[in-house]
Amino acid sequence: MTAGAATEPAAGRVALVTGAAGQDGFYLVERLLREGSAVHATVREISRATDLTSLPGGERLTIHELDLIDADAVADLVASVRPAELFNLAGQTSVGVSYREPGETWQTNATAVATLLEAVRRSSPETMLYQSSSIEMFGGDSGAELVHDERSALRPMSPYAASKAAAHVLCDAYRRAFDLRIACGILANHESRRRPASFLTRKVVDYVRALREGRAGGQADVGPLPVGNLAVRRDWGFAPDFVEGIIRVCRQVSVRAEVAGGQPEPDIGSSYRDYVLATGELHAVWELIDRAFELAGLPLAWDRSSADLADWSARIAATGRLAVAVDPALLRPGEPAALGADPSRARTDLGWQARGGLDAFLEDMLEPELANAAPGSITTA
C-alpha cells in the first residue's frame, strides 16, 4: 500500500506518539521520521527506547519518559509540544493479561485517555488526536459468530475490551461536545516480530524456535505448546499495514478528498469519523498454529475429532511427537467463537486495504532463517 500525497505531510510537522516502545508505536515512529516529521515519543521506561534511537531520521526524534497516569506531566508535555498530530498507542494490549491485571488495564487504557483528551482540550485544541480502539470492545455472546463494523453495539467481554470501550465512548463525547479533531481506529489483531511474549502469535513462534534450537543445541526436550480454545476464529493482519491505516485515519479529511477526487471537507471535529481496520478474513487458532509449523518445516498431524475442545491436540507429522495440547486454564470465559470485522468503510473512504492471509506476519516473526523451511528439514524426536 503506497501512501498518496494526502498522507504525506509537509516536512517538519510535529507529531506526538505515546506508547512508542510498543509494536505499533515503533512502526509509526519509523514511518513519521521517514516522511520528515519531527516526532516526540513517550515511553514508560527510557531503557525501552533503544531501538527507537537507531532509526533513520533520529535527529528529529525526542524521547520522553512518561507515565500517562501522571495528569500534570501529560498536560505539561502536550502544552509544550502542541503537536499537529497526537497518536495514542499506549496502554495494556493483551486480553489475557487484562484478566490478571484489571485495575492496571483500566488505568492505562481508559483513565489515561481521559487525561490526554483534557490536555488537548485545554492546551492544544488544534491537535488531531488518534485513539487506537479494538474490535474486542464489540464482543458478543459466548460461542457467537459475529462480524462487526463501525455501527456495531459495544458489548465488551473482558477487562481489556471494557477499558477500550470506555475510551472509545469518551473520544466520541469529546469530539461532539468540543468539536475536537478526534478519530478512532478500531483495530483487529495485527502482528509482527515486535509482538511481546504475552501474545499467542509470539508464543507459537517462540515455541517453534525452541524446538529447533533445543534439537540443534542438545538442550533438554521441551513439552507441548499449551494453548486455549483452538476453534475460535479471529482476524489477524500484518502490523505495518495497520500503521499505514492509522496514518490514513488520522489524516482522513485530506485522504478522503484524494480518494474521491473532490474537495476536502472542512477540517473540523464534525468531519472526523471512526474506522474499522481489519483484513476481513477469519482464521481459527489451530490454523494459525498449523501454518506457523508448516512454514518452519514441521508439518502437524491434528486430532480434532472430539466434541470436547479440551481434547484437541497436534503431533509432529514426521515423528508423532506431541506438539500442541490444550491447557484448560487458558480457556477464557464468554469467548465468542468468531470475531470478525468489516473494513469496507476504510477501503472505500481511505483507499486502505491490509494484506490477507497468515503468511505476511508469520514469515516476519519466524525470520528468513526459519520461515519457508522445507518439510522435514528441521527434525525433532
- Give the proportion of residues in helices: 25-40%
Strand order of the largest sheet: 3-2-1-4-5-7-12
Structural class: alpha/beta
Q: End-to-end span in angstroms? A: 43 Å
Say how many strands there are: 17
Q: Low-confidence spans: pLDDT under 50, at least 5 residues?
A: 216-220, 376-381
CATH top level assignment of the largest domain: Alpha Beta
Overall residue-averaged pLDDT value? 91
| Second CATH tier, the architecture of the largest domain | 3-Layer(aba) Sandwich
Shape category: globular
What is the element string, with H for helices and E for strands? EHEHEHEHHEEHEEHEEEHHEEHEEEEHH
CATH homologous superfamily of the largest domain?
A: NAD(P)-binding Rossmann-like Domain
Here the CATH topology of the largest domain equals Rossmann fold
Number of domains: 2
Radius of gyration: 21 Å
| Largest sheet descriptor | 7 strands, parallel
The fraction of residues in strands falls at 15-25%
Tally of contiguous helical segments: 12
Provide a short characterization of the protein structure:
By secondary structure, this protein is of the alpha/beta class. The chain has two domains: about 10-190 and about 240-275, Rossmann fold; about 200-230 and about 285-340 and about 355-365, UDP-galactose 4-epimerase, domain 1.
